[in-house]
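Q: Study each token:
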Amino acid sequence: MGTRLSKFHQRRRGFSLIEQVVAAGLIAVVVPPLILLLNGLMRQASLSNTRVNMVSLVRSQIESVKAQPYQALPASYSLISPIPPEFTITIAVSGARTYTFPSPSSSSTLPDELQLITVQISCPNCAPPVNPLTLQDYKAKR
């Protein structure tokens, strides 16, 4: 009986055709959704990276405008440098409000003007496509 079992184990060294078909079927069912999931995750990571770069560039541009000397309207503040070639930055400046400080009842007044600075960044050639980002802040004449 011992030799009979050993002959049975010697014959059974590989996989049967049915086992191989079942394994191929499982792979065919499981792998495509995993590839789609991985593709979606890579796309989201690329989109997030682009958005982080856009936010950083817009904030840098706002801080650069605020650091530049005040210009009367129509103002043209310079862009930060270098700007990555895939991004486009535009700056719009408008008068926000003119007010007097200290209060008008005082004998001496100092005019203080505010400008609304609007910076927009877009990435027309980015893949995946990214919506433009706009940030606004105020610049005061001091």
Q: What stands out?
A: The CA atoms of residues 96 and 113 lie 8 Å apart. The mean pLDDT is 85.
